[in-house]
Amino acid sequence: MASAKEYPPVIPFCAIMFRDKDLYEKALSFLKTQIGETAKILEDIDFSKETDYYDGEMGGNIKKTYVVFKNPMKREFLPQLKIKTNGFEQEFAKEGKRQINLDPGYITKDKFVLASAKDYFHRISIGDGIFAEVTVHFAANDKIRRFSWTYADYLLEPVRELLVFGRRLANKL
After folding, report:
1. pTM (whole model) above 0.70
2. Contact 41, 49 (CB under 8 A)
3. Which domain holds residue 24?
4. pLDDT per residue as tens digits for the range 136-152
5. Contact 35/71 with Cβ under 8 angstroms?
6. Does residue 78 lie in a domain region?
7. H helix or E strand, kind and range, residue 132
8. Do the domain assignments include residue 134?
9. Number of domains comprising the chain
10. Residue 153 DSSP one-character state
11. 5 in a domain, yes or no?
């Protein structure tokens, strides 16, 4: 029988969807105050080319940046981080529509997890009205395995490379 134990820390991650570069810079600065120094950034993927899902709320021509942070965090911090990022989004919303979307998560040696305030069959409550989903898992030789719910942009080669970079950091913890 396994016993409850404290697990190693994780490598923080956040995806940032935006149209306004100045607001993106504010968001990145905010994230640095919450999480710490960045380890690697993949900037300005043309997200509207991948999907139009957010165009109705945020307008077209949405860019997406993916950030891996340097300082490990406890995985139990994820619900608080999601609540803080939701607050940031609301602070800059116009007429109830987000101008920026922050998707925090973390990377471990075997999985990439994203937080959400939306429940769904594959998401598990992690407290304070926040849910977590394993978005991809890592197999041998840094191969990334998807699920039916994995967002297509996380399968783009530059994003996959960034996630593997985060996994390698996590392997050192």
Report:
1. yes
2. no
3. 11-171
4. 999 999 999 999 999 99
5. yes
6. yes
7. strand 130-138
8. yes
9. 1
10. G
11. no
